[in-house]
């Protein structure tokens, strides 16, 4: 680190270091986290308008918080260069959005298999067509089967804390796969919120590329990789076997990330009123709206509870089962047309039939609390029009 | 540590594979180029021995030259992509990264910068080796932009003028009129001007050749690596025929390479003034050492 920072471990940084309140955008919150992460290198590619994050990361590079930064040719070039640099033993960050994520996806989905530790910001945006540049988190569905660890931030504070935690989680020896932090474009990235941050004179302990299940490919650490054979590339039984056990390990790594999600982020879910008859389950911005709907319901004396899902991968199956055990109806509001979260929740619980797949908005629409309230009233067999009046 | 990291503890040595031990004892690691290199091929344990390439494959022959020419094999990383070449490159006793389709120069940009951050006083050579499809078609943008950015590593294109590994489809480097898969009526545009593109994009040393002369080929490879260390991107465009897809009988592979040398793969070498100056210094040192 070129600036004189005090290096501390992630537990101190997240839980003990004194914090001050700032009023900043989600994009600023993500960049502020990168500033405190002892990140060695960041590679950027523009995607307007969501990716202000990488402009801000460029600024903190210019200020000396990051050692290396450049604008790549496009997202596949960005994500491939990340894979190269991480193999060279440095701590990496990039951020992208919707179509950019999909353009880089070939490289991104190979990161876990290549054992690339890095942090990926996903500032969600519609995937065309027809053209829209608005927030919609459908692109997260494409990441869900890649092996990558996925966190979903509700607001600016989450964005800051999750991004910092992601740098620690990705380099854990028993994880060592990438971690993505998603949050909704515009709603969080461009809107200001209160974020409690520690001093930027503190930073996370620097990357140790030898504390790794697959050490950096720098010709420095034994055993030497002077192999004669790359069996994975051969069309024989060994290649099937190697691919299969390797991928099993990737998904086990993904599961093992859960204990660090507990350690740094207080677990993969947050539950309010767990024994309610009607439960709301949501992630990201939809969680903010569901939280508000839950507050309305509480004011109206309705038997409603709320689960915010922080971790999409590993998916908190056990935790959700415990939180939803007494529910007779589960409402899953989302910011995408396909309802990836509701499908996950349905598959996770034994009585998936109680899941209401919606309400959903997409293409950039906001998610009015009233839409969620209507589902609550329906679930409780109430006449929503009368009650709303 | 780069040399020491591969030398096993004496007590452990007998448990290691014979091939590994022989590479450490009789391979080129840490040795003067005059002791090993292309001139002594056959007299030391080479970095590429067995490989699964087709009989008579000119590409496999050139890959053996690449590895024999390395100035610093114990501190070299190679990066490749899908294609015939990686089948032999992955058999070399040098760390190899098999990336995604055509992304070798993007990946090399990342790892080269990482090495320079972590080892500012140490030379680690990064070389991308890929075919004409990987370099000039699917990887075109990443190849060109790495050059425009001035990334300091060496790019070697194994040009067999066809997608050999996927069964003989037209590539951007196939000649006009070539009847191949996906160009059933003959290719309707000519070879992409790879050498000119490299020069325009800022490569400081560029060679086009049909590597019929082993020492000449090795000299170009070494020059490309030396210039990349100090000055900027370098590029070698080598003809490495596909005797299968172009139906060249095995005994005629060398004759074909010689013919191409008289035609579109006539030796051309471009270097900037700085590169020329560098080679004068590097090669003078070498001569002094020999004398």
From TrEMBL, chain A:
Which intervals hold domain Pyruvate:ferredoxin oxidoreductase core? 276-352
GO biological processes? response to oxidative stress
| Superkingdom of origin organism | Bacteria
The enzyme's main class, written as a single word, is: oxidoreductase
Every Pyruvate flavodoxin/ferredoxin oxidoreductase pyrimidine binding domain range: 32-251
Does the UniProt entry include the keyword Oxidoreductase?
A: yes
- State the signal peptide span: none
Q: Which GO terms describe its molecular function?
A: pyruvate synthase activity
User: Known EC number(s)?
Assistant: 1.2.7.1
Q: Does the keyword Oxidoreductase apply?
A: yes
InterPro entries, per the entry:
PFOR_II (IPR033412), Pyruvate:ferred/Flavod_OxRd (IPR050722), Pyrv_Fd/Flavodoxin_OxRdtase_N (IPR002880), THDP-binding (IPR029061), Transketo_C/PFOR_II (IPR009014)
List the keywords (alphabetical): Oxidoreductase, Pyruvate
- Which PANTHER family does this entry report, sorted A to Z? PYRUVATE-FLAVODOXIN OXIDOREDUCTASE-RELATED (PTHR32154)
Q: What is this protein called?
A: Pyruvate:ferredoxin oxidoreductase, alpha subunit (EC)
Q: Which organism is it from?
A: uncultured Sulfurovum sp
Its lineage opens with: Bacteria, Pseudomonadati, Campylobacterota, Epsilonproteobacteria, Campylobacterales
UniProtKB/TrEMBL annotation, chain B:
Gene3D superfamilies on file:
3.40.50.970
Q: Which UniProt keywords apply?
A: Oxidoreductase, Pyruvate
Molecular-function GO terms, alphabetical: pyruvate synthase activity; thiamine pyrophosphate binding
* Oxidoreductase keyword on record: yes
Q: Does the keyword Oxidoreductase apply?
A: yes
User: InterPro entries, per this entry?
Assistant: PorB-like, THDP-binding, TPP_enzyme_TPP-bd
| Pfam families documented for this protein | TPP_enzyme_C (PF02775)
Superkingdom assignment: Bacteria
- Span of domain Thiamine pyrophosphate enzyme TPP-binding: 95-237
Under which EC number(s) is this enzyme classified?
A: 1.2.7.1
* Enzyme class, first EC level, given as a word: oxidoreductase
State what protein this is by name.
Answer: Pyruvate:ferredoxin oxidoreductase, beta subunit (EC)
Question: Which species is the source of this protein?
Answer: uncultured Sulfurovum sp
